[in-house]
């Protein structure tokens, strides 16, 4: 049975094609005293939107992002990606959907330490197998160059600065040209210069590639520069509003 | 290919542990190959000696089951008291006819024999002997006695009607030499003089001390069994047909026919048990080696939990994650199996080259090693199976790791 979809408080309707849809999402951790991480969250995100998810610590921002990224399953409710309901998908089908349609950027770069920047970016392409080996190298080189890392292709993560690593992670998230990028505090561990570089990279992806970016952040200044802000309190949507010019 | 690359980077990063685990597998494979080569070599050597020494099929002058009593054929239940077999002259009747009927279909050589017990006397000393009456030329086709001759020639029995060939140890005990005349006395106290025309050394002490060959006619006279033989020895061209030939000959002639396998059933069973023990030990060695692999793959899974989360978040399914870690186990297993095969070959070659020098006349002067690809295949397959299982257990755990738990832990 498809769960009912009630609009969230102050919900903004996504313009144009709906790419991501959360309907009455609830996630409760089973324990002696069950912990509610996300409660009855509903919203829609459209193509080429740059959305911030904000909220105080423990408000369920990251938990919501994991549900949206199909890394976790909701206790109830549903996530639709590009119109596809995901509640009945097997873990292998979810993995394939992640590979093809989603890109992740985490607070810490989470690059594979034994591989160079170029190889890290190529890994999702190699797994998907839609590009020839030469095309994979070309595309990965292009992505890294576009993020200002043309001179660091063959460096391992340990030989890169924090900002550079995070930009490699952004390039890796873009490797399979996903429709949606989910970022969990992508600038959380960076200095102000690197923060600005990574933020601009994400913003550029939205404008030039028409890729949707949903980013969890505690940096309200950055959140205010994004198209839309969904604020959570205690796992519920407190407000969902467009950027005020 | 990508998964193999990820797997190989993991094990390369744990080089020391990888080398130790690989060595564990290599030692297991190497020693098992060397042990199998030695065991099969000794088994083949022993079997070859045994088969050479005895006929492949021997037809004896006895029945496999006692003849059915007439009353049993009439009544369902019969009890006999004080039953005694009737006195009968033992032996295979009409041996010429029996041999002719066998020659029609048996693919091999045949020789008739008459064996019996006799006492050999020389210079006042007596030795109990098993005396075998043979047709020398035919006997040479069914046994390796010709190769065992140390002095004289076995064929001389053909030209010397009272010729005798005895073991060198018997001659030594008696102090008799080639050309000496000895006396043989049968159980019926018939005595006859024989001339020693040859000495043999088979390496089997009981034969060298207590077996003598003489012309068939002379033995028939001594044992008072004219025109009678008590066994037909068959040497087959294809040794594997022994059981089949024995069964058919028994059906055809009505006499008990024993194949070399039946005659040495206990020994064959002992070899089988020995092989089971050997492969159990080999399996145990490789299980121990498997624990080494399990240890290293488990450590890598623990260390690489974050990488597992990354790969899962990128869209690698559980099957891929499992494959990566199973591959790690298998890569170690393959490396170990290759190194172990080389080690096994070196060990076997070394053992084969070791020579023993004895002051006494001993047949074996080196270890009997048998080189067989099958030993390598079995040991390598066992190693791969063991390493596959050792990799699979932690791999299953890795595949089930929840990426959210790991990402939360890292942040």
The CATH H-level homologous superfamily of chain A:
P-loop containing nucleotide triphosphate hydrolases
Main beta sheet of chain B, described?
6 strands, mixed, barrel
Arithmetic mean pLDDT of chain A: 86
Low-pLDDT segments, ≥5 res of chain B: none
CATH architecture of chain A: 3-Layer(aba) Sandwich
Give the strand line-up of the largest sheet of chain A: 6-7-8-3-9-10
Compute the separation of the termini of chain B in Å.
31 Å
Quaternary: heterodimer
Low-confidence stretches of chain A: 1-7
Record field, number of beta strands of chain A: 10
- Helix/strand-derived category of chain A reads alpha/beta
Largest sheet of chain A: 6 strands, mixed
How many helices of chain B? The count is 17
CATH topology of chain A: Rossmann fold
Q: Which geometry of chain A do the CA atoms define?
A: globular
Largest interface: A-B, 32 and 28 residues
Total count of domains of chain A: 1
Query: In terms of structural class, how would the helical and strand content of chain B be classed?
Result: alpha+beta
Radius of gyration of chain B: 33 Å
Main location (chain B): membrane
Keywords (chain B): Cell membrane, Membrane, Transmembrane, Transmembrane helix
Domain MacB-like periplasmic core (chain B): 18-250
Membrane topology (chain B): Multi-pass membrane protein
């Amino acid at each position: 049975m498809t769960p009912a979809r009630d609009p969230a408080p102050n919900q903004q309707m996504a313009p144009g094609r709906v790419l991501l849809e959360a309907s009455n999402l609830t996630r409760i951790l089973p324990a002696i005293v069950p912990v509610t991480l996300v409660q009855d969250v509903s919203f829609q995100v459209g193509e080429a939107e740059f959305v911030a998810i904000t909220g105080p610590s423990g408000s369920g921002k990251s938990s919501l992002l994991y549900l949206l990224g199909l890394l976790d399953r909701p206790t109830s409710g549903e996530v639709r990606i590009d119109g596809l309901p995901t509640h009945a998908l097997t873990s292998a089908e979810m993995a394939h959907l992640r590979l093809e349609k989603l890109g992740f950027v985490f607070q810490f770069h989470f690059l594979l330490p034994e591989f160079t920047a170029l190889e890290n970016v190529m890994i999702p392409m190699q797994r998907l197998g839609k590009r020839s080996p030469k095309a994979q190298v070309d595309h990965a080189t292009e992505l890294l160059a576009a993020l200002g890392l043309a001179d660091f292709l063959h460096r391992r993560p340990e030989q890169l600065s924090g900002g550079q690593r995070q930009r490699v992670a952004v390039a890796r998230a873009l490797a399979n040209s996903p429709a949606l990028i989910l970022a969990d505090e992508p600038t959380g561990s960076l200095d102000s210069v690197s923060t600005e570089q990574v933020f601009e990279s994400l913003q550029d992806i939205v404008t030039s590639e028409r890729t949707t970016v949903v980013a969890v952040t505690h940096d309200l200044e950055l959140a205010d520069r994004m198209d839309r802000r969904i604020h959570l309190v205690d796992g519920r949507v407190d407000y969902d509003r467009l950027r005020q010019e | 290919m990508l998964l193999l690359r990820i797997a190989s980077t993991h094990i390369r990063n744990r080089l020391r542990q990888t080398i130790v685990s690989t060595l564990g597998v290599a030692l297991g494979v190497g020693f098992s190959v060397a042990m199998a080569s030695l065991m099969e070599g000794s088994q083949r050597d022993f079997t070859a000696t045994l088969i050479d020494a005895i006929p492949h099929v021997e037809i004896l002058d006895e029945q496999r089951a006692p003849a059915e009593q007439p009353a049993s054929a009439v009544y369902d239940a019969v009890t006999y008291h004080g039953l005694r077999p009737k006195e009968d002259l033992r032996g295979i009747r009409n041996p010429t006819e029996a041999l002719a009927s066998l020659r029609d279909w048996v693919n091999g050589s045949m020789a008739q024999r008459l064996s019996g017990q006799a006492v050999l006397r020389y210079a006042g000393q007596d030795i109990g002997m098993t005396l075998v009456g043979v047709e020398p030329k035919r006997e040479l086709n069914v046994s390796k006695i010709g190769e065992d001759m140390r002095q004289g020639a076995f064929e001389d029995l053909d030209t010397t009607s009272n010729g005798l060939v005895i073991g060198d140890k018997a001659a030594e005990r008696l102090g008799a030499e080639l050309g000496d005349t000895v006396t043989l006395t049968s159980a019926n106290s018939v005595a006859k003089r024989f001339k020693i025309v040859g000495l043999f050394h088979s390496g089997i002490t009981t034969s060298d001390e207590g077996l003598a060959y003489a012309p068939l006619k002379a033995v028939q006279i001594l044992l008072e069994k004219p025109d009678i033989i008590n066994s037909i020895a068959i040497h087959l061209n294809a040794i594997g047909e022994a059981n089949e030939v024995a069964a058919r000959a028994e059906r055809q002639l009505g006499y008990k026919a024993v194949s070399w396998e039946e005659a040495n059933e206990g020994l064959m069973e002992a070899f089988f048990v020995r092989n089971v023990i050997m492969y159990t030990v080999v399996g145990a060695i490789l299980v121990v080696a498997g624990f080494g692999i399990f240890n290293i793959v488990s450590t890598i899974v623990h260390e690489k939990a974050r990488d597992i989360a990354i790969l899962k978040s990128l869209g690698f399914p559980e099957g891929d994650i499992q494959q990566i870690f199973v591959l790690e186990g298998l890569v170690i297993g393959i490396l170990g199996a290759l190194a172990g095969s080389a080690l096994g070959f070196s060990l076997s070659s070394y053992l084969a080259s070791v020579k023993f020098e004895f002051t006494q006349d001993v047949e074996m002067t080196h270890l009997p090693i048998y080189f067989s690809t099958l030993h390598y295949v079995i040991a390598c397959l066992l190693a791969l199976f063991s390493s596959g299982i050792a990799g699979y257990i932690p791999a299953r755990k890795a595949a089930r790791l929840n990426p959210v738990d790991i990402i939360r832990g890292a942040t």
